[in-house]
Amino acid sequence: MRFDEAYSGNVFIGASMDLDKAQAVIYGMPMDWTVSFRPGSRFGPARIRESSIVLEEYSHYLRRELKEVTYYDAGDIPLAFGNPERSLQQIGEFVSKVLERKIIPIGMGGEHLVTWPVVREVYNHYPDLAVIHIDAHADLRVDYEGEIYSHATPLRKIAELIGGENVYQFGIRSMTKEEVIYAEEAGIHFYPFDVLEPLKKSLPELAGRPVYVTIDIDALDPAFAPGTGTQEPGGIDTKEMLAAIHAIARSEVRVVGADVVEVAPAYDPTEQTAVVAAKLIREILLGWVK
């Protein structure tokens, strides 16, 4: 992926074509090679961009508009189709280039495994990194049916890399017994079912620290985001998700990277899931890019 030329397709609303002045880089990770139920999240980043045009560039929640933030849309990383290991390597190489410029990477997935190489690169730059994970699924498995590279394993890899005590999980409502035991033994801050209230209580602990935030769209109830590969009933609503983003924005944590993953447009002909994801990205840009 080159940085020295503008992305030739659709771009996220308000994106700048001047990389040198960018405070953040938006990029797509169109990968769904390891999904266990329904593929299609590789089409998520492009659809989120296309759907962003429906949004206003002003957020009354944050009293800011997109022209106050300079961000570059680098397009989708051209990944090695069907090859998880090579694709993860390509993602890591791309993010490393972003971080070398001291720019905040904001990714769009793609399956959740794509978060693993991103956090690995961010951790190389910020050794005191903490991770906030908002999701329906724990993603703490060692492997899924014998495969260590799976969308069910990224948070296990992350916890083993940065230490479980530096991982904060919210909204989890689908997990194995073994994952719960691991979370307890590893010291992960594990908050099942709820997001906003435990997040608000946790943010003071993270004040001043670099934080990476990963949001799986299936943290939302399927009523609000049906376009995802692994739906899980009983989730939060869009209003609570936005409130969580705003709580982080108003806290003293230093967000050094983020992603929104698992948007699979084919399962939502109404396109509400892509529109929701685009709005989350807008609020992330306005709230977390200072």
TrEMBL record:
Protein name from the UniProt record: Agmatinase
InterPro entries: Agmatinase-rel, Ureohydrolase, Ureohydrolase_dom_sf, Ureohydrolase_Mn_BS
Cofactor binding note from Swiss-Prot or TrEMBL: Binds 2 manganese ions per subunit.
Membership in a protein family: Belongs to the arginase family. Agmatinase subfamily.
Record-listed Mn(2+) binding positions: H112, D135, H137, D139, D216, D218
UniProt key word Metal-binding: yes
GO biological process: putrescine biosynthetic process from arginine, via agmatine
Molecular functions per Gene Ontology: agmatinase activity; metal ion binding
Cofactor(s) essential for the protein: Mn(2+)
Alphabetical keyword list: Hydrolase, Manganese, Metal-binding
Sequence intervals crossing the membrane: none
